[in-house]
């Protein structure tokens, strides 16, 4: 990976530069709206939902939402990770020269999982999406890729990675075993490690989600009447993204860092301590290891060192994620993985968040961008998810 | 409904005029592409798939597809039907004056079903989608709507229709019972009947799908390199739509009628005689009644009188529809109803169709528009569908 010392600083201009580099290689994914989901989100929660919580006996908040869903499930390889992977490789090429990168190749490791409900270890599909994104970017740029995955990976995952001509190297199933094999690969081939989130080039690549979203919202609102655009501007009051390793949230926050009117929030699962971002902020120190089997398996990763001090983090329960995901499937008509539903679950169910929107947005309400981060799941996994409830 | 004698003729210019009328009221739905689905569609079928068919022992066709999926599942009310309903009402208003239409109101009937696998009668969600589209259009234009639906309709369907301020009138559960009540409503209120498909105003409204698709493909291809656009033009070689009542297919064929390079095809389910369009063409006479419980419940309707002479109709089995739908869910990441998967099933599995594409497209292949007609189904219905297989 490009040396930290020579990386662009984390500014909106660097996100714009990243976008110029990667835009020939990625999809400009659509932004979807739904009046039904706006109405549901803008309906106060039932008071009974507060039983046993800090809000018991209090009047539910009455926030007003206009939502803009950024559909990164339609991105190449089915997740935003393609942005960071292309940016990391294009930056490597501009720094070392493409011949040097092609000579050495690139490497990362993957949990090798295909199915988010048959997790055979505590790794997550965040890595899986990154490994596939790296394989695609390397294939496109004609760079050798060495992907380390457990020997017990699903056949379809192995075949999927090999479809991009990547070399698959098998390892044991735990993360330390995979990391050890990656070390051997680097020693043997000189391949360059491309980490999944905790690197400026990855963060800037993921930040292009925010840039594209803001541009698209401006296009959508420029001819709108007062019913659809009561504020009369095209400023997003907030953008909310899933938080796993934190590359997407950090990149989005970077892009909006000079736009104080746009608040950037992160959304996590609370199950089994998956809310390491929120807890770390509360304790004043990053939580380096997380061990949760939340259904939002893309978000099991502990937040990275660069990313952990981001503010405004909210966490939701497994049932809330499932309820939000069902609405997104049936009403927005998008096929998404559970991790992608976490921000909308915060909007629907986190009473602290809803109070902020009510207080800050008032009668005009808030225009909120919601990042649907990916869609890498299966019909079988979705059906198992709803069978249990 | 506007008198047939004063309706615009079925020409591309009339579709353009319809588009000018309705475009402030509808979504310009996105067009999605997937290299993975292009590759799967361009892979020859296994010879074993031909066992017991006319193709047994023959070499599978080797067509090359570049697919453009027009996502009408993201349309208002979740289906293309919003286009026809808005056009029908706007035309009525321009013909009779909006005051007269508001005085009389409009009416139609609905099967009242919510769930495509718990059909309690042989009606279909094509009507359900139309009734909801009419309720939305009437609500938007401030016209009273009287929707007749069976008293045993699902609560969510009744609530959904009432959410648009429509008056719900209950009837018995069979179609003749519903039609009888519609007659009473008309007698009592003077309401104007808006049929679901067999009327020029509906056909022209649905035809705007074809117009939008062609425009979007031109935008997508204008800066493409030879890898993505080997033909070097932006002509769609074919558009394939589901065929139920035939409004969508007829409208699309109308729009492309002066573009002989673009072939328009219809796709039907074959189960229990659902392929009435294909059979009618073969027999030389429209088949007026159909009684099928195909999973593609939007396509149970017999093709309408205006629409039935359309050519180029292909039919697929229930299993083929399920296989195509699973690929669209998992790879294209769109949530669709089974009816919407029927055209892609033809592309994947109809060897006659694949031979045409191989012969006409040759090494350059064909650019094919695929209309994903709607997404009105539920997680439960989808899970039941795949539990059976």
Automatic annotation (TrEMBL), chains A, B:
Where is the chain membrane-spanning?
none
Q: What InterPro entries does the database record attribute to this sequence?
A: TrpB-like_PALP (IPR001926), TrpB-like_PALP_sf (IPR036052)
Every copy of the Tryptophan synthase beta chain-like PALP domain together lies at 126-355
Q: Which UniProt keywords apply?
A: Lyase, Pyridoxal phosphate
MF terms per GO, please? ATP binding; D-serine ammonia-lyase activity; L-serine ammonia-lyase activity; magnesium ion binding; pyridoxal phosphate binding; serine racemase activity; threonine racemase activity
Pfam family for this entry, one:
PALP
Which coenzyme or cofactor does it need? pyridoxal 5'-phosphate
Q: Its family?
A: Belongs to the serine/threonine dehydratase family.
PANTHER family reported for this sequence: SERINE / THREONINE RACEMASE FAMILY MEMBER (PTHR43050), SERINE RACEMASE (PTHR43050:SF1)
Q: What is this protein called?
A: Tryptophan synthase beta chain-like PALP domain-containing protein
In its UniProt entry, the species of origin is given as: Penicillium cosmopolitanum
């Amino acid at each position: 990976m490009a040396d930290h010392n020579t990386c662009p600083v984390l500014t909106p201009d660097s996100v714009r530069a990243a976008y110029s580099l990667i835009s020939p290689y990625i999809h400009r994914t659509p932004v979807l709206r739904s009046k039904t989901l706006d109405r549901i989100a803008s309906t106060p929660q039932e008071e009974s939902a507060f039983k046993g919580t800090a809000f018991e006996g209090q009047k539910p908040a009455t926030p007003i939402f206009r939502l803009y869903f950024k559909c990164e499930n339609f991105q190449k390889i089915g997740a935003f990770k393609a942005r960071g992977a292309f940016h990391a490789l294009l930056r490597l090429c501009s720094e070392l020269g493409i011949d040097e990168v092609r000579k050495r190749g690139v490497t990362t490791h993957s949990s090798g999982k295909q199915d988010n409900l048959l997790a055979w270890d505590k790794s997550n599909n965040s890595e899986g999406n990154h490994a596939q994104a790296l394989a695609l970017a390397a294939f496109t740029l004609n760079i050798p890729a060495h992907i380390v995955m457990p020997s017990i990976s699903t056949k379809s995952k192995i075949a999927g990675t090999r479809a991009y001509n990547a070399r698959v190297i098998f390892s044991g199933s735990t993360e330390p075993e995979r990391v050890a094999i990656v070390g051997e690969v680097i020693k043997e081939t000189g391949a360059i490690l491309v980490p999944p989130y905790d690197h400026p080039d990855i963060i800037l690549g993921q930040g292009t989600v925010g840039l594209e979203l803001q541009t698209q919202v401006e296009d959508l609102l420029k001819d709108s009447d007062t019913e659809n655009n009561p504020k009369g501007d095209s400023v997003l009051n907030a953008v909310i993204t899933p938080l796993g390793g934190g590359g997407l949230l950090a990149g989005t926050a970077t892009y909006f860092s000079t736009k104080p009117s746009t608040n950037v929030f992160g959304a996590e699962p609370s199950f089994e301590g998956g809310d390491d971002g929120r807890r770390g902020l509360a304790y004043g120190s990053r939580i380096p290891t997380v061990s949760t089997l939340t259904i939002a398996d893309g978000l099991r990763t502990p937040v990275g060192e660069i990313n952990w001090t981001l503010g405004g983090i909210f966490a939701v329960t497994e049932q809330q994620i499932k309820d939000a995901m069902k609405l997104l499937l049936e009403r927005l008509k998008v096929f998404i993985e559970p991790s992608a539903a976490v921000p909308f679950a915060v909007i629907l169910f986190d009473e602290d968040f809803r109070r902020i929107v009510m207080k800050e947005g008032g009668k005009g309400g808030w225009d909120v961008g919601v990042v649907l981060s990916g869609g890498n799941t299966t019909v079988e996994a979705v059906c198992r998810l709803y069978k249990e409830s």
